[in-house]
Amino acid sequence: MRTYDFSPLWRSTIGFDRLFDLVETAQRAGEDNYPPYNIERVSEDRYQISLAIAGFSPDEVSVTAEQNAVIVEGNKADKAEREYLYRGISARPFKRQFNLADYVQVQSAAFENGLLKIELIREIPEAMKPRRIAINAAPSGTVHQLEGRAA
């Protein structure tokens, strides 16, 4: 896999740090795909992230909301060593980060049937929402014509 060094670009740009972080994150995206997840659009301003983390308990998983990101970490508690004939359920530690768009916030998280469901909502401030501006017509009969002078 080819890697790129973006440090020369950081020296000459201002305010684009998040853009370069997203590029680096996309570059590392193919490295690990555990745990599997779905991202659903529930309604126009509501989303849900579902992570399949069978074998983990809610105490072994943490969800952290940061600015424009939500981080899910899991670490299985060490228990007595067992002898497995076949081990198909992974219990390895993981860390998964999801980058969020502006104004998207974590509303809640729930653990149900081996799935961690994280509810997201997009709340755009009133000042940022589009609004319709009424167009007033000029009253008729108030048009004044200027007299032209000969040059």
- The end-to-end span amounts to 76 Å
Structural class: mainly beta
* CATH fold naming of the largest domain: Immunoglobulin-like
Number of helices: 2
Total number of beta strands: 7
Overall radius of gyration: 27 Å
Question: What's the CATH C level of the largest domain?
Answer: Mainly Beta
| Shape-level CATH architecture of the largest domain | Sandwich
Number of domains: 2
Mean pLDDT over the residues: 81
What proportion of the residues is helical, as a percent range? Answer: 10-25%
Largest beta-sheet characterization: 4 strands, antiparallel
Strand order of the largest sheet: 1-2-7-6
> SSE string, helix = H, strand = E?
HHEEEEEEE
What percentage of the residues does DSSP assign to strands (E)?
A: 25-35%
Shape: elongated
Low-pLDDT runs of 5+ residues are: none
Protein name: Small heat shock protein HspH
Family: Belongs to the small heat shock protein (HSP20) family.
Domain sHSP: 28-138
InterPro entries: A-crystallin/Hsp20_dom, ACD_IbpA/B, HSP20-like_chaperone
